[in-house]
Write a structure and sequence with these properties.
Elements: E1 2-5, E2 10-13, E3 20-25, H1 36-54, E4 58-63, H2 80-88, H3 92-109, H4 125-137, E5 141-143, E6 149-151, E7 190-195, E8 211-213, H5 215-226, E9 231-237, H6 241-256, E10 261-267, E11 270-272, E12 275-276, H7 287-292, H8 298-305, E13 313-315, H9 317-336, H10 347-354, H11 359-371, H12 377-388, H13 403-417, H14 421-433, E14 438-441, E15 444-447
Parallel strand pairs: 3-4, 3-9, 9-10, 11-13
Antiparallel strand pairs: 1-2, 5-6, 6-7, 7-8, 11-12, 14-15
Helix pairs in contact: 2-3, 4-5, 5-6, 8-9, 10-11, 11-12, 13-14
Adenosine monophosphate (AMP) binds next to helix 1 and strand 9.
């Protein structure tokens, strides 16, 4: 099994012969609903885990819940959680629990297999304090004049290996994270622990005074603690390459004195109407919006699978609707292709999954199989669905034709023979409102 590693900039082999593969995926900041762009990234770790499983290893995935410390880009020194809490006029922890529950619902709707653990940043403060203390002792971190603790970027020789952003090319003046005017020794240093100042909510006692943790230390702490000090595959969206993953790598490697992560996988962005989907661009689509339109949420999953995870996707409502139709057609055909629930490996599909998760090639191959005269179509589809997760064996929804529907259908057939088109159109609408789809063919009307 091979995946593209952002750090070495090449495909890297994963030893699926080992019993367990340790995975970490950066989780949501729970101050708002996750949009389908965020979900594209969360789906990536699910797909990788499923391919690991397909190869006979056991994926062990940890995904953190960021409920403190993620600062807003719009307002310097404003925690995303606290900004939203003020807006909704409720306790920030209430906000966190509300959006965390919605995140889990979204994952379930997208048929994402739950991770082994979802640790919360706010419940891992002691762990972070211990690690920050160790970094100070090892001289990788220092207490600034503002009582915040900073990581000293220059102490970490290979800083920039993931993103290519080397320290000598990082200019002062770029707003890295916080406005720590003068408190840091070097402009690219970042806060591991931030002094509370006048902040009163979501603050904790520490050896350096009251404060709260930085966002990056959270992921070092949780991955090292819950994955026994080593991550085989680390997943996140492409925007996290810098500074988040660069800083996480510096912290983790400094703590354990070796490379903490074998393979960094980054998923490309989802666009909508040509722009990166984000709250600030105002082009956010939620999974809830898709469901409210009567579209199967797994149509979104199929849209993502039709594209390479390392390519941007420009999503449209028509591509989502087309995916919904494909899903319906495949499920109907699966039920027609036979009731025996057998499975058969297709070497091309297997190879595509194992070659940098080439899901578009898998989908193309399924379309070929669909049109072929193979006797084992359902078996191949079922094999692929172990990773695709499209629930292709879902029984078709069937409804009984009611006497009222039957009467309306007869009335409409009569109206058409008598060329009463207005009546025919009115009856079509009535039937559609009852859930019937009507098609007019040269042989007469048909319905489904
Ligand atoms: P957040 O909840 O803001 O911490 O983001 C959660 C994840 O979503 C991160 O891995 C981001 O890189 C990812 N992400 C944010 N916007 C997009 C997008 N438009 N397309 C794909 N992934 C995204
Ligand atoms: Zn992270």
């Amino acid at each position: 099994m091979k995946l593209y590693d952002t750090q070495s900039r090449q495909l890297k082999e994963i030893e699926v012969t080992r019993k367990q593969i340790q995975m970490y995926c950066c989780g949501p900041t729970v101050y708002r609903d996750a949009h389908v762009g965020n979900l594209r990234t969360f789906l990536l770790s699910d797909l990788i885990a499923r391919v690991v499983q397909l190869n006979g290893s056991h994926p062990y995935l940890i995904q953190n819940i960021t409920d403190v410390g993620h600062m807003s880009e719009d307002f310097v020194n404003d925690d995303k959680m606290l900004t939203q809490a003020k807006l909704e006029k409720v306790d920030p922890f209430e906000i966190a629990r509300k959006y965390e529950a919605k995140f889990h619902q979204d994952l379930a709707d997208l048929n994402i297999v739950p991770a082994a653990g979802y640790p919360r940043a706010s419940e891992s403060i002691d762990l972070m304090l211990t690690l920050i203390g160790k970094l100070i002792d090892a001289d990788f971190a220092y207490v600034g004049s503002d009582s915040s603790v900073y990581f000293s970027a220059q102490k970490f020789a290979s800083y920039g290996a993931i993103s290519g952003n080397k320290l000598d090319s990082l200019k002062p003046g770029h707003r890295y994270e916080y406005s720590e005017d003068g408190a840091k020794r070097f402009h690219a240093d970042w806060a591991l622990w931030k002094a509370a100042d006048d902040r009163t909510e979501m603050v904790w006692e520490s050896p350096w005074g009251k404060g709260f943790p930085g966002w990056h230390i959270e992921c070092s702490a949780m991955s090292l603690e819950l994955l026994d000090g080593h991550v085989d595959i680390h997943v996140g969206g492409i925007d996290l390459r810098f500074p988040h993953h660069e800083n996480e790598r510096a912290q983790s490697n400094a703590l354990i004195n070796t490379e903490a992560v074998d393979l960094w996988v980054h998923g490309e962005h989802l666009l909508f109407e040509g722009k990166k989907m984000s709250k600030s661009s105002g082009n956010v689509v939620l999974l809830k919006d898709v469901i409210e339109r009567g579209i199967d949420p797994l149509a979104i999953r199929l849209c993502f699978l039709e594209n390479k995870y390392r390519s941007q996707i420009d999503l449209t409502w028509s591509s989502i609707e087309a995916a919904h139709e494909t899903l319906k057609r495949w499920r109907m055909k699966m039920s027609q292709w036979g009731s025996e629930k057998s499975m058969q490996i297709d070497p091309e599909i297997e190879s595509a999954f194992n070659t940098d998760l080439d899901t578009p090639r898998v989908i193309m191959r399924l379309r070929e199989i669909e049109k072929s005269d193979s006797d084992n179509k359902a078996s191949f589809f079922r094999y692929a669905d172990q990773v695709l997760g499209l629930d292709l064996d879902r029984p078709l929804e069937t409804k009984v034709l009611t006497p009222q529907m039957k009467t309306l259908l007869d009335e409409r057939a009569l109206a058409r023979t008598e060329k009463r088109w207005a009546d025919s159109d009115r009856l079509r609408v009535e039937l559609e409102n009852l859930g019937l789809e009507i098609k007019d063919t040269p042989e007469g009307q048909s319905w489904s």
